[in-house]
UniProtKB/TrEMBL annotation:
The chain crosses the membrane at residues 15-35, 298-321, 341-357, 369-390. It is an enzyme of class 2 (transferase). InterPro entries: Nucleotide-diphossugar_trans, PGA_PgaC/IcaA. The lineage of its organism: Bacteria, Bacillati, Bacillota, Negativicutes, Selenomonadales. Pfam families: Glyco_tranf_2_3. It comes from Propionispora vibrioides. Its EC number is 2.4.1.-. This is Poly-beta-1,6-N-acetyl-D-glucosamine synthase.
């Protein structure tokens, strides 16, 4: 049986080697995906048909962004689409702007909700009102690339069991250190994870900012659950459990705004962490069925990441207490020693690989390597704290009530 010191050493090794192992897995998986499914794909796929795509744009208090978002959608090169904007009881001029656009554009419809019911409810309403067999869901501050729908629709045409296709979010506000770090994060963390999960066969979550769904698949799983704080993660798991195929299409670009204040970033990451734990809580029944075995590693990886966050934060607290007050507690190491230096080096290599893979979409993005190297020092602690804070909220939150939203801090509204 392990004594307390050997257990402590094990936990110290876990804090360092868990992210090290995941970094290596992500680099291998993302590189394989790039060479197998991404490299050399430069021309638009030729489509034999152009099925109607219903673009759902839920919005609440988005008067600064909604006009530009719909303008970008309407500028799409895809020839057969309709736009359904859902105003979730906005208290600003969002509804007025949407009604003006509706009066000017024949293929734009607006749904007006009398009460703030949250994004999942708005998406349910939009899906039920839609005419298309494919639903593209984008955020109200996102700029859709003109050719994104061609890349997305090709998956649905060629794969009858494709239930969802998630696109490639690109950060467009890059004026602050936080925003520049997130530019690298979306390439060297989020993009690499999605590539790797696609190779392994199970994508943990589509990107809520740009995700397309086969309407038949969404209806098959009962639409979006209105009581989940993160609609994108939950709908992905519902589709996976019904054996619909989830794909990642890096050529489907969408330009987004990210938080540029610590408060805004904290609120976003707490919501992400809470949503992830809520999904783990709701879908814990996958362990009862052998048919769901391919989801077990994804489930386990998320649980291990939560354990890592708690261990990391607890070790940090013990280290700080020992630093200012001699308690006699066992010494723990949180500052880089040889293991920390090794981890920092591997992370740097991961960032370099991720930015290099995305050079295809942004030629100058490798230049953000200087900014993303701050990720381990600032973001690891932030995300660990967010997970520690959000996990009890997710585990003990009374489910059933609509998960409503407030407009987040997304930084400065800049044009491409």
């Amino acid at each position: 049986m392990l004594d307390s010191y050997s257990l402590l050493e094990f936990l110290e090794d876990y804090v360092f080697y868990y992210p090290l192992a995941m970094s290596i897995i992500w680099m291998i998986g993302a590189s394989y995906f790039y060479m197998r499914r991404e490299q050399g794909r430069k021309t638009l796929p030729e489509l034999e048909e152009y099925p109607l795509v219903s673009v759902l744009v839920p919005a609440r208090n988005e008067e600064k962004a909604i006009g530009s978002t719909l303008k970008a959608v309407l500028a799409s090169s895809y020839p057969h689409l309709e736009v359904i904007a859902i105003d979730d009881a906005s208290t600003d001029s969002t509804a007025m702007i949407l009604q003006q656009i509706e009066s000017e554009e024949a293929n734009v419809r607006v749904l007006m909700l009398d009460k703030n019911m949250g994004k999942p409810y708005a998406l349910r309403c939009g899906a039920l009102a839609s005419k298309g067999d494919i639903l593209l869901c984008i955020d109200a501050d996102a700029y859709l690339d003109p050719y994104a729908l061609h890349w997305i629709v090709a998956h649905f045409i060629n794969g009858p069991r494709v239930g969802a296709v998630t696109g490639n979010p690109r950060v467009r506000n890059r004026t602050s250190l936080l925003a520049k770090i997130q530019v690298g994060e979306y390439s060297s963390i989020i993009g690499m994870i999605k590539r790797t999960q696609r190779i392994l066969g199970k994508v943990l979550t589509v990107s809520g900012v740009i995700a397309a769904f086969r309407k038949q698949a969404v209806l098959d799983v009962g639409l979006w659950d209105t009581d989940m704080i993160t609609d994108d993660i939950n709908i992905t798991w519902k589709l996976e459990k019904r054996f619909w195929d989830i794909r990642y299409e890096p050529n489907a670009l969408c330009w987004i705004l990210v938080p540029e204040s610590f408060r805004g970033l904290w609120k976003q990451r707490v919501r992400w962490a809470q949503g992830g734990v809520e999904v783990i809580r709701r879908h814990r029944d996958i362990w009862k069925s052998w048919k769901q075995r391919r989801l077990w590693p994804v489930y386990l990886e998320y649980v291990l990441s939560v354990i890592w966050s708690y261990t990391y934060v607890i070790f940090g607290c013990i280290w700080l207490i020992n630093l200012v007050y001699p308690t006699g507690w066992p010494e723990v190491h949180v500052l880089p020693e040889w293991k920390g230096s090794l981890l920092a080096f591997v992370c740097l290599v991961q960032f370099l690989v991720g930015l290099s893979l995305d050079k295809k979409y942004e030629r100058h993005i490798p230049g953000y390597l200087f900014w993303v190297i701050w990720y381990p020092f600032a973001y690891w602690l932030l995300m660990a704290l967010a997970t520690v804070y959000a996990t009890p909220r997710a585990l003990f939150r009374k489910m059933g009530k609509p998960a409503v939203w407030t407009s987040p801090d997304r930084g400065l509204f800049t044009k491409l």
